């Protein structure tokens, strides 16, 4: 191995150890979209985005495959049972078709990802190893209600919420998260604490 490669490997290892963000492979391009139907690759560049509602609008953000299905809006204005999310983090892959219904949205391109140990996560799709360090976690609903799902390299399918009095939601869930596992949450905010 050349000296350059050794230095590069050492620098990347230090960055990961220190929790410094890792550059995203294919960064998207920040843009705003109005309500409508869109295709990734022709209407918006493929990449990772944090999607937020614009101009006080609220409505559905969903893909035709069903892999994206959230209500963007101000959680403080939610009258239907704390299902609104103020942002949704997602990887948009080429040829994915999605709809914005009743909502205009800002798509902020993500350029760096930092794997957390213990912190809050907003609604979105996260990968263990890139966004969350592998390990055993106590996952707690901090704001809103919705689903916590994982089907790749570990199965989770839990309805979570801050109000568990009706018996429909649990407030916390313990999970062992493995590298490569994909975690999807539709809650406004969850907290992960490494055990």
Automatic annotation (TrEMBL):
Signal peptide boundaries: 1-26
Keywords: Signal
Domain of life: Bacteria
Record protein name field: Cell surface protein
Organism (species): Weissella confusa (Lactobacillus confusus)
